[in-house]
Amino acid sequence: MKTYWRLLGFARPLGKYAVPYFFYTLLHAFFNLFNYVMIIPILDVLFGQEAIVQSVVEKPEFALKTSYLREIINYFMYQQYGAQYNTMQILLLLALFLITFSFFSNLFRYLGQRTMESMKIRTLEKIRNRTFDNVLDLQVGYFTNERKGDIISKITSDVQVVQFCITNTLQVAFRDPFLIIFYMLGMLVMSWQLTLFSVLYLPVVALVIGFIVKKLRRKATIGQETYADMVTMIDESVNGVKIIKAYNDADTVKKKFYERNGFYSRVMWSMAKRQQLSSPTSEFLGITAMSVLLLFGGKLVMDGSLTGSEFIAYLAIFSQITRPMRSFTDAFANINQGIAAGERVLELMDTKSVIEEDENPVRLEEFRQGIEFRGVRFSYENREVICGVDLKIEKGQTVALVGGSGGGKSTLSDLVSRFYDIDSGSILIDGVDIRRYSLRSLRDHIGIVTQDTVLFNDTIEENIRMGRRDATIDEIIAAAKVANAHEFIMETDSGYRTNIGDRGMKLSGGQRQRLSIARAVLKNPAILVLDEATSALDTESEKIVQQALDSLLEGRTSIVIAHRLSTVANADKIYVVEHGQIAEEGTHDQLMQKKGVYYKLIQMQQMV
Q1: What pLDDT was estimated at residue 220?
Q2: What does the pLDDT look like over 315-331, one tens digit per residue?
Q3: What is the pLDDT of residue 566?
Q4: DSSP per residue over 9-24, as a string?
Q5: Rounded Cα–Cα distance for residues 119 and 167 (Å)
């Protein structure tokens, strides 16, 4: 239940909802009870009991007895008509009472439900926001180890399960106990003997239902995890549909999906069987109890201990008390599924980023000197990929990192932006360890253009504006011109307001890359990281993009990572990275003269 109470913590301030809901449900239960108590005088009138039509001159004293109801009705009738009132007039009064009680009962029921719905919606909004905030605050490395579909499932599906299973239970916990208490009070006034049986019998119903739903929680956890697997597979299949079709592998992918979907359906069916069994079982037990009451109550009527109208009203109320009891047990049948989903959501919410801010961070106001790596070591999951690297990048220099795939080039650039934290050594900017700087001020000075261009399903304008949210349209156009993107943008249907589709799929690879460069131009960073920015492009697109990059590099401190060594020949300094270490360093001419690793790489690319 720790998970349950923690989830309810998101409903704060709880009093804003709980206090009005308390009074609404209390009044609903009060008026609802009288809807059924009114059965007694109505039956008395209809079946000709003369005792109901008799003059009561003085207002009777209040008493928890059904006879008080008869007396107070006759008193009001006497006040209205004197001693001349008849059966039809009493029926009219009873009908008006019944309509009034029903109106107020349903009015307060509506107000209570509206209050609770407001609480549920606001609570789930807070949970989604908190979870999404935490996801975006996590370090980049987290997303390489976790399935994207599982994260999406927790934020969407699991949170929705929490809404229907956890907060609904709160509503039932407030509303149904009041109904049960008022119904029990009415039953006790009519017959303490029958009520004693009811009090002993109802816990049996709760125990039986509890036994039925005991194993739901474990199955609910399995169900949520399987659903996350399916979301992951759908996401991968949709994104990779071109490859799936190219390799004629659709049948295999479909088969895998059928297997996962089938397993999920079996888990849900197993849960549904238990969940759906709880309500019919409680209803059967309720009918069984009414049958016993029919025998016991019939004997009391024949003995004269109970009138026929009281007995029928008692049965009507007892039939209603089983409804909140069923609702109560049904809610707790579902709570295990909600807790299982809640645990998955809270697990994601509680995951902390390993990239922590300094307690008293320094703000990087201006980049003045340069970047320095001193004995930097870094590991991915106990596998060391950067092994004691030392290098310097002076302000205004363009430094190239070259070497074979997996050597650690991209990792070195990621460490500058603190996407990961080093194991030992230090990375200094202007002589200060970057771990001392606030993350926001550090990243404000760094711009990144990668091989895998990341664009969003939005307009061209908004994708470029990500570089600086307060930019004007004129500044966006100027950035696009520097990136050689303005011409193709103006050829689109709506210019800068053209939606580029999911991941920018409406554009070519070169066009997407130029938008990415325009975004970096708009940000105007002091430090620029180009990670294989042209390697995925054809020759023509590469030439256009390279021109845009040359414009972008002017006057900046740049780290350029490239496999195509022709793009880094003019770099101020080149570092050859192999197996997480600096194998060689120097200018293009110096490295060519050494005829070492760099020379061999050039030869392999047939550039000698």
Answers
A1: 66
A2: 778 777 767 766 666 66
A3: 63
A4: GGG-STHHHHHHHHHH
A5: 9
